[in-house]
Amino acid sequence: MQIKYHVEPNKERSLCASMPTDGMYRTIAEYLGWAQQTVRQTIKRWQCQGLGGLWEAPGRGKKRTWQQEDWQVVEKCLGQNRRYSARQLSQKLFEERQIELGAEQIRRLLKKRGGVGNVSATVQL
After folding, report:
1. Of 12, 78, 103, 114, which is least packed with CB atoms within 10 Å of its CB?
2. What is the superkingdom listed in this entry's lineage (predicted)?
């Protein structure tokens, strides 16, 4: 059994492109834990676009629906002598800022912030 360490995606792609291909797509795919088609596409991108083809294109992923000012509304709520559930914070954010964030996303943001309970802190998310 081969142990695979976490490597950044760009480094994995460059590693894939640097391996000799000579029809060894299956071996490379097994080594990297990828599908053979992904290996073929990566090598083709490298051959056509060079090193720049291995980097992720800008604009990938969903854009944020909230701003830093929106987060300050949540911090203001947390600074009060009242406890809010994630669902209540979500509703309050919608009422005050017209931003729709689900309760689970609020929980993730609070966890990323690292605060415990109703502790208020300024964060850069």
Report:
1. 114
2. Bacteria
